[in-house]
Design brief:
Layout: H1 2-24, E1 27-28, H2 29-40, E2 43-45, H3 48-51, E3 55-56, H4 65-75, E4 79-82, E5 87-91, E6 96-105, E7 116-119, E8 124-127, E9 133-140, E10 144-148, E11 155-158, H5 159-162, E12 170-174, E13 184-189, E14 191-197, E15 202-205, H6 220-224, E16 230-231, E17 241-242, E18 250-254, E19 257-258, E20 263-264, E21 269-270, E22 277-283, E23 297-303, E24 312-317, E25 321-329, E26 334-343, H7 351-361, E27 373-393, E28 396-416, E29 422-443, E30 448-467, E31 472-492, E32 497-517, E33 520-542, E34 545-556, E35 561-573, E36 578-589, E37 591-595, E38 607-611, E39 620-632, E40 636-651, H8 652-655, E41 667-681
Parallel strand pairs: 2-5, 6-12, 18-23
Antiparallel strand pairs: 1-3, 4-5, 6-9, 7-8, 7-10, 10-11, 13-14, 14-15, 15-22, 16-17, 18-19, 20-21, 22-23, 24-25, 25-26, 26-27, 27-28, 28-29, 29-30, 30-31, 31-32, 32-33, 33-34, 34-35, 35-36, 36-39, 37-38, 39-40, 40-41
């Protein structure tokens, strides 16, 4: 009898459970629509494929028609709209939804309070509350949202991804950004967009970039010359001299691709588009151990690196050139950035172009006057960039880049011979720098990340000089091909301590070729240099102390030679306004530019790249130390820095002498020392 009672009780419980499951079962939306048409005597207009595979809980029978429509809108990604008392349309167009989310840190899943949530297409913004939660109402189902927090990598979502019919807010985990240690010290340095980091490097933030006094358009390389210790000895834009060094002693990187040429009009215009260049970091001393091959400075340019899923672009024109750029979303995880610029001088030669032409080709045969010959010249330039951004996942990002820079000059002469015959000869000059690069960023754990970088850079300058009066044809070529591979491993021990370990390989090949038709002469020189490097550094930042110490070991395979390069960068805040800084570095350089003859390459671009041979052209080596004092308030920045730099391994042909050393293969050293002072007051 007792067993029978328990059996009946269990059957009743199972009946209740089964009944509860039946009531919570979702119903296909198509069936719900048919039932509502009968209930309210209305008609729904919809595409069958829009409602297929959608299931919802049935609305309560007690709801009115308008309440039922509101219910359907809140539970689906479709837009239900009553046209009148008889017809209701169902579509995916003009749908607005409410979304929510909970933003968490990757380390311990703690909520991030005050994280920014931006609706990109309408520029609405909100922040997370004390629980890391946010809510945004009435946004388009096609809208994209960017979620960001200081010290963390930003993430992008569509409204559809964050929508939940049950109001179950999605957990969004942000990954710690490894650049957190390098904090901005001075947010406005000379002009908005120029900032200074704790390690002493200067950053051009192009998002906030303002035009410096005396400039019409923002120019990356021109703005760099406004910094203390940086100038151009020949007053051009692309020729940059840092603390007494020559232009070839600067390591110029564009998205980790080494560039061997940076200008148009042979130095008067920067070849880098500021619209897609996100930031530029300039380091004069105390450089990170992962960089070498520039004994004077490192100029590191980075393009936009975030997949925003937002289409944008722009175009412009001035009296010399026209340009355009586009940011094109391909899929949710893939984006394409392109830019281009070309001179318009073949259509219109403005007074500005004429002045630039005279400045570029002054003191050359291109601009020389002669009563015995008629001359004509044509010059044009263009540049382009392209970047593919692919986010495989939150922890793996792939990037591919292309950059091209081209200058072309054609110069023709008509000469009347002694027999009253007219002869016409044409000379030309072409200068190109093309680069291809790729990198893979991986976040393996919350503390360990890697960055694999590879690139190929090719520089060419080719000239054909046909001299009418001597019937002589001179051809010259200078070519550089460099392949590079680098892998960095970062281990972030805690919020204050970061370790870097890496390896770099470079293969640099150079060609110099000269041929003469009358008398017949030909010379071809090819050199290839392989360089391996291991580097490591530790970076510490806490309270008022910043420290970065590193070591780089270089091995030149051809010479079987090792070079050790220590680096140090210290900044100590001694009060709220005053700080002391100490920087030092050893660096080397295995490529250099020389001047063989003043009329090389039509006398326009006299310098040619060569690789060292460790004999008459030794490896350039620099030793530099600097000490500075800084005084900073919110509106006033005063700093003074004294430096001492020794560069050994320079050649006479590299310095452009016009004395007895002009044609000698002498090599030696130079010393640069001085004091840099800056006083900057902002409004």
């Amino acid at each position: 009898m007792v067993r029978s009672k328990w059996l009946v009780f269990l059957l009743l419980c199972m009946s209740c459970i089964c009944h509860g499951q039946d009531t919570s079962k979702k119903t296909p939306l198509s069936e719900v629509i048919i039932a509502l048409e009968k209930q309210f005597n209305i008609k729904f207009s919809y595409a069958v494929e829009d409602v297929d595979n959608i299931t919802i809980d049935k609305p309560k029978p007690s709801l009115t028609l308008l309440e039922t429509i509101d219910y359907l809108n809140s539970k689906t990604l479709l837009n239900f709209k009553a046209l009148d008392d008889r017809y209701v349309t169902v579509s995916v167009l003009n749908k607005t939804v409410s979304v929510c989310g909970i933003v968490l840190a990757d380390a311990n899943k703690s909520p991030l309070i005050g994280a920014s949530v931006l609706v990109n297409n309408i520029k609405r913004i909100t922040i997370t509350n004390e629980n890391g939660k946010f809510n945004i109402k009435n946004i388009s189902i096609t809208a994209t949202l960017t979620i960001s927090y200081v010290g963390f990598e930003s993430r992008n979502f569509t409204a559809q991804e964050l929508f939940s019919a049950q109001n179950n807010c999605k957990e969004i985990v942000l990954t710690t950004r490894n650049e957190e240690l390098n904090q901005v010290l001075i947010p406005v340095y000379l002009t908005p967009g120029l900032q200074k980091y704790l390690d002493g490097s200067t950053v051009l933030n192009t998002k906030k970039f303002a035009i410096l006094p005396g400039l019409i358009d923002p120019d990356i390389l021109q703005s760099i010359q406004a910094l203390p210790g940086i100038e151009s000895t020949n007053e051009s834009i692309a020729n940059i001299n840092v603390r007494g060094g020559t232009n070839d002693q600067n390591l110029v990187l564009w998205d980790n691709i080494k560039m061997y040429h940076s200008g148009h009009f042979f130095g008067l215009i920067s070849a880098y588009n500021p619209n897609l260049t996100n930031k530029v970091i300039v380091s004069k001393n105390g450089t990170s151990a992962q960089y070498s091959d520039g004994v004077s400075s490192t100029i590191n340019m980075y393009t936009k690196d975030l997949v925003t899923n937002t289409f944008s672009g722009g175009a412009g024109i001035n009296s010399i050139s026209s340009d355009a750029f586009l940011e094109i979303p391909i899929t949710k995880k893939v984006e394409l950035h392109v830019s281009g610029r070309r001179s318009i001088t073949d259509l219109f030669k403005s007074p500005t172009y004429n002045k630039y032409f005279e400045r570029s080709f002054q003191d050359t045969e291109i601009n020389a006057d002669s009563e015995q010959r008629d001359t004509a010249s044509d010059f044009y330039f263009y540049d382009y960039t392209a970047k593919v951004l692919f986010d495989l996942s939150e922890k793996h990002q792939f990037r591919a880049n292309i950059i091209g820079i081209n200058n072309a000059l054609e110069y023709s002469e008509r000469f009347i011979t002694n027999a009253n015959k007219t002869e016409s000869k044409t000379s030309n000059l072409s200068q190109k720098n093309n680069g291809y690069g790729g990198n893979w960023k991986a976040q393996w754990t919350s503390k360990l990340s890697t960055n694999f970088i590879t690139y190929f850079s090719k520089y060419n300058i080719d000239a054909t000089d046909y001299r009418v009066e001597t019937d002589q044809r001179l051809t010259e070529a200078n070519e550089v091909q460099e392949t590079g591979i680098k892998i960095n491993a970062n281990y972030k021990s805690n919020d204050h301590l970061n370790f870097l370990l890496g390896y770099q390989f470079n293969e640099t090949g150079m060609l110099n070729q000269t041929t003469v038709s009358n008398p017949i002469y030909s010379s071809t020189k090819k050199e290839v240099l392989l360089n391996h490097a291991l580097f490591s550094e530790v970076e510490y930042s806490k309270n008022k102390t910043y420290l970065r110490m590193g070591m780089r070991l270089n091995y030149f395979q051809k010479f079987e030679k090792f070079l050790v390069e220590p680096r140090i960068n210290i900044r100590q805040q001694v009060s709220d306004q005053i700080a002391l800084k100490l920087e030092g570095e050893f660096k080397n350089q295995s490529t250099t530019q020389i001047v063989d003859f003043e009329d090389d390459f039509l006398g326009v671009e006299k310098r040619r790249w060569i690789v060292v041979n460790n004999k008459d052209i030794p490896i350039a080596r620099s030793k530099q130390g600097s000490f500075g004092v800084e005084f900073n308030t919110k509106k006033l920045n005063i700093e003074a820095t004294t430096f001492y730099k020794i560069v050994d391994g320079i050649t006479a042909s590299n310095q452009g002498f016009y004395n007895s050393f002009q044609y000698k293969n002498a090599h030696g050293s130079y010393t640069a020392k001085g004091i840099e002072f800056l006083a900057n007051k902002t409004a």
